[in-house]
Design goal:
The protein is about 45% helix and about 0% strand. By secondary structure, it is mainly alpha-helical. The radius of gyration is 13 Å and the shape is globular. The protein starts with 5 loop residues before the first helix and ends in a 9-residue tail after the last helix.
Amino acid sequence: MKKTTIPEQLKSTLQTSLQNFVNKTFFEIPVIIEDPKDSAHGDYASPVAFELAKQLQKNPREIAETIAGQFKKPIFISQ
């Protein structure tokens, strides 16, 4: 059995949440997990909400909050 890294697990979880979010209007959005520019923003970041905001002409914060509401928090995330 292959062990997955935390970024790989986050990417998989984010992909699932993203599929739920864009189910009605499908867009090809690459799911990227990266280090945030400011470490005060956490250990990992993803530009997914910004990419969707461009395509949907919506506020990226609203999109991020909607996706986060559907995000199934993995057991290794403490907050």
